[in-house]
Amino acid sequence: MNPGSVAVVVAEDIDVPSWDLYELSIPCTVFGKPQPDLADPWYDLRLCSTGQRQQDSSTAGAGLAMRTRYGLDDLVGADTVIVPSVPDPCVEEGRPLPSALITALRHAYDAGARMVSLCTGAFALAEAGLLDGRRATAHWMHTAQLAERYPKVQVDDSVLYVDDGDVLTSAGLTAGLDLCLHLVRRDLGAHVANQLARRMVVPAHRPGGQAQFIDLSVPTTDAGSLGPVLDWARRHLDQPLTVEDLAQRAAMSPRTLHRRLQAATGTTPLQWLLNQRLVRAQHLLESTDLPIEKVGELSGLGTANNLRHHFLKQIGVSPSNYRRAFPRTMPESSPSPLDSRAQEGEDGEGRQGRQRTDRGAPDTPVTPRATGPDD
Fold first, then answer.
1. Other beta carbons within 10 Å of 148
2. Which residues contact residue 282 at a Cβ distance below 8 angstroms, ignoring those fewer than 6 apart?
3. Strand 114-118 and strand 80-83: pairing?
4. Using 50, 70 and 90 to split pLDDT, how confident is the model at 197?
5. Does a structural domain hold residue 356?
6. What is the pLDDT of residue 298?
7. pLDDT tens for residues 97-134?
8. Residue 358, domain member (yes or no)
């Protein structure tokens, strides 16, 4: 299974502001370091410079120079093109983006590339006309400017990222990491994405519809931390858990649990449970040959019909099509994160299946859609 090439735009090859390095480093970390034990081959990463001339030293600020082997011509032919950010003056002052960059983005899209922006990179995709008529997002501090400057774009400032098939956009900072892991999940399956996230010591999956605004005023070291009860819930997803069950386990009222979980994760308790059960179901579909009915039972989604309903609504395909898209992506030697009840249901037989070779938007998306946190 070849995930293809990823071309990352370096918007300024001279005087890259230090605060823009975070978004630039995200795709470099996710796609640039080979992970042969998870997927071989891994992504082919290219850093493509816009080739702008050197700025005057009086405006250089705290930036640094970067030189790359690739230029804008290398965007065309890449399977995925990522714009991690654009220069601040282009956002704050309306300075034009390099025309060569906009032309290259259009050519890459016309050639079939999957187009991705992180944070203010959405301004480049919008300038190229790639977001016209589409739902998109950016960092909440810049979404008003994005909407005003590009009225044809349906700007949503309330989500972490938006997956619109062949064009994807994310909010700023860590939301860019969420989107990049989402791309890995889309290309290589939930197991590979979860293992990569574990190595990066970050949450395995935050749905795109999760709110950008999360109140972290509740200390994580509070004696009433939700960590233990959420871990307990993950181990008992096959049981008919309710908000009252979680609240009782956490020794708090259902209203307090709802408030604290909303503040900590941006989702309601019921939506959190549904997301966890979908992740469990994805893992089972990828790593076992269990019947769909058994997958529904072990994931806590109930009957096969109920499993299909939630898969079609939240992921966009049926469980059977998802399994065909990601056949046995978990190595046989990998430890299963499932609890003992799930492990006892596995038949342990390996299965070789067809591999995906497309790197554009799949005919039937196999990733969670970006929805509102209470959908």
1. 9
2. 189, 190, 315, 322
3. parallel
4. confident
5. no
6. 94
7. 989 999 999 999 999 999 999 999 999 999 999 999 99
8. no
Whether residue 250 is found in the same domain as residue 126:
no
Query: What's the token pair of residue 229?
Result: 């009860």
Amino acid identity, position 346: E
Same domain, 33 and 61: yes
Position 207 in a domain: no
- Compute the distance between CA of residue 126 and CA of residue 360 in angstroms, rounded to an integer: 19
**Distances from the Cα of 282 to the Cαs of 181, 271, 322, in angstroms?**
15, 16, 8
Residue 231 burial (C-beta neighbours within 10 Å; 0-12, 13-18, 19+): exposed
Predicted TM-score (pTM) of the model is 0.64
| The one-letter amino acid at 345 | G
Q: Please report which residue ranges of 111-199 form alpha helices under DSSP H.
A: 121-127, 143-149, 174-188, 190-199
Same domain, 85 and 227: no
- Can you give the residue range of the structural domain that contains 254? 216-265+267-351+364-375
Same domain, 61 and 125: yes
